[in-house]
């Protein structure tokens, strides 16, 4: 039975996610609902789902003529799925799923856990993307074309806060490190400008800079992407009725 999952607002900023096509991101998010639950008490790793084209197609894109194999391969290439075999069947393991989901009442073991060797290789970093692969990804190629840097408005806003003895540059660097971003990746200017506005509004109440910054950045990012999605939806609606397959095809370019 499918389970309800959560989506972290920071999700769109993650390096591997930004390198996925829109259809692959959509498929990846919906696939969480069909993964096994982690259960620390029973030593169940979780995050596993069948590597079964027909089962996944019927559960995620039940009424659309979409070939999901290229989407699965995209996700595997970005190290968000790791294939393995167990009990005579093929499976996909998503190691990041248990880290980002709060499962208060885990279901009974549904699928086998990945082999210990695979888990150890993942934890050791052996299976991480190399910098060269990330740099050659679709997203990085686009980003490398734009080296204009921040606008004068953003520079002034950040420097004003820094001169107020609030080291916002350190906090931005800290959250980029948490997200494992590469050099050159930046937050949308609209988000950072909103954070700057929030600083002057909340200044008397800020006791701990890092928790405040993380909460505000997450909130403003969520609002930014929600607004962006609404605009994209309105544009699609204006163009007339389209099937999901047509929408995904257009998003893929």
Task: Please give a structural write-up.
This protein is mainly alpha-helical and 253 residues long. The chain folds into two domains: 11-135; 150-252, no CATH class. Helix content is 53%, strand content 5%. The chain is built from 13 helices and three strands; from the N terminus they run ααβααββααααααααα. The protein has a three-stranded antiparallel beta sheet with strand order 1-3-2, with no helix packed on it. The protein is elongated. The model is unreliable at 131-146 (pLDDT under 50).
Secondary structure layout plus pairing:
Blueprint: H1 15-18, H2 22-31, E1 48-50, H3 53-60, H4 69-77, E2 82-86, E3 89-93, H5 97-100, H6 116-124, H7 131-135, H8 138-145, H9 152-163, H10 168-179, H11 189-202, H12 209-238, H13 244-252
Antiparallel strand pairs: 1-3, 2-3
Helix pairs in contact: 2-4, 9-11, 11-12
Could you list the spans in which at least 5 consecutive residues all have pLDDT below 50? 131-146
Order of helices and strands: HHEHHEEHHHHHHHHH
Q: Give the rounded overall mean pLDDT.
A: 79
Query: What count of domains describes the coordinates?
Result: 2
Q: Gyration radius, to the nearest Å?
A: 20 Å
End-to-end Cα distance: 34 Å
The strand line-up of the biggest sheet is 1-3-2
The proportion of strand residues reads 5-15%
The tally of strands reads: 3
Content-based structural category: mainly alpha
- Supply the number of helical segments: 13
């Amino acid at each position: 039975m499918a389970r309800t999952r959560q989506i972290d607002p920071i999700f769109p900023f993650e390096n591997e996610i930004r390198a996925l096509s829109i259809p692959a991101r959509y498929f990846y998010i919906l696939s969480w609902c069909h993964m096994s639950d982690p259960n620390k008490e029973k030593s169940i790793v979780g995050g596993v789902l069948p590597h079964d084209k027909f089962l996944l197609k019927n559960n995620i894109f039940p009424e659309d003529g979409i070939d999901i194999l290229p989407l699965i391969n995209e996700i595997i290439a970005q190290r968000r799925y790791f294939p393995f075999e167990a009990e005579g069947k093929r499976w996909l393991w998503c190691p990041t799923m248990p880290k980002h989901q709060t499962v208060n009442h885990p279901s009974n073991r549904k699928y086998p856990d990945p082999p210990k060797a695979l888990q150890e290789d993942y934890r050791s970093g052996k299976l991480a993307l190399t910098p060269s692969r990330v740099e050659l990804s679709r997203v990085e190629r686009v980003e490398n074309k734009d080296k204009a840097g921040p606008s004068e408005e953003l520079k002034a806003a950040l420097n004003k806060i820094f001169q107020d003895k609030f080291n916002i540059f350190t906090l931005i660097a800290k959250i980029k490190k948490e997200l494992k971003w590469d050099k050159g990746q930046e937050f949308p200017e609209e988000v950072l400008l909103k954070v700057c506005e929030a600083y002057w509004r909340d200044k008397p109440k800020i006791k701990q800079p890092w928790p405040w910054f993380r909460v505000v950045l997450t909130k403003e990012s969520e609002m930014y992407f929600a607004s962006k999605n609404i605009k994209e939806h309105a544009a699609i609606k204006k163009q007339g009725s389209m099937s999901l397959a047509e929408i995904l095809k257009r998003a893929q370019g």
